Amino acid sequence: MGHGSREIKINKRRLLHDLNAVSRIGLGDHGSVTRLVFSIKELRSRQLLIHLMTQAGLEIHIDRIGNIFGRLNGSNPRAPAVLAGSHLDTVVQGGKFDGPVGVIGALEAVRTLKENKVPLSSPVEVVCFIGEESSRFGFSTLGSSLVAGQVHKEDLANAVDAQGTKLEDILSSLGIYRDNLASLKRDPETLKAYLELHIEQGPILEAKNKKIGVVTSIAAPTRFKVVFTGQADHSGTTPMEMRKDALVAAANLITYIEEVCSEFSSMDKGRVVGTVGAMKIEPGVINAIPGKAELSVDIRSITAEAKERVANLVRERAREIAQRREITVDLLPIRDELPVALDERLLPLIKEICEEKNVPYEIMPSGAGHDAMQMAKITPAGMIFIPSKRGISHSPMEWTDPEDICLGAQLLLETIVRVANEEI
User: Fold this and answer.
1) How many CA atoms lie within 13 A of 258 on its CB side?
2) Model-level pTM?
3) pLDDT single digits (tens) 384-401
4) What domains can be seen in the chain, in order of their start residue?
């Protein structure tokens, strides 16, 4: 495993076979995959994982929300565990690799260690966190946030899906209420580290022809809803100067978000990105002036100050627009998170493994959020990126070369062994 011992290799065929089996669940048009959190399809993907973990002889624990942990004990079962994993839920019409690569990659690594009876001092756990994607409720990294004790009562207030189902109602059906959110938190004393293999979801590794990204930090989102309320009137009989059009107000704000984020797009200004990804209009018919427009705003950066500054500018502009147009505006917070630096001891360790194996790597931040950002709050966390073709993700066009997936899983295996057996 480096250090002169015989090299243990993952079973590439089995890894790719299981990854394909997962990607067939929720398969739709043009190869897209949809497994929204708490849907039947997403539940089926978790059932498949439990089946694979059972076959591998792992000890399985499932917490109340549905996070799955498959454990392989080391020589000291009481020692803190090394966790490795990701998520199986997807966005609407997403790709095959975002999430499952990290879960099945970790499973394959741990299966290989077990089959080869590789000595491990610490236990190793494969983890599948629930609800990493925010597509259904606007709430990201749900399972890992609960495990890290990072979900607070007020966070759940505006988490509702497109059908009007409240996240809070689903949680209460699982026995998770506002007053016992902390009960899902894992004791940090039981953890040695968390490792996550993930596709890059960006174009940097491919452009630089590097096989592996060693991640330094993870950008975080500030998310809120902006609701403009004007007056719904007849589109034919209401003169232009008498209108209180909520959608035009919303359109003004959307353009402003693009402008202000472009001003902050350079690295020296903190590289802020902003998106309005969803919108609801009422009454939403061709012959009525929109009386209400609700926008979902997502602002991200790897710099907390720049992100906060832009979010405040957007909120101020929303109020100005409403005042100028004599309509009302409500700003509803969804989530406000701080960018997270990953562990400074794991980074050189992953780098060293790449150098020993002559694997070209890039040290880089992550623009997308991941479960690692929550786990980093309770244990040392590290991330390994593999290339995404043309940087495309959250799309059926998402593609990562199978050889790159296998290389990533192999590096994950070697990192797990080092972390489990060494002082970090």
Assistant:
1) 7
2) 0.89
3) 999 999 999 999 999 999
4) 12-219+339-421 (3.40.630.10), 220-336 (3.30.70.360)
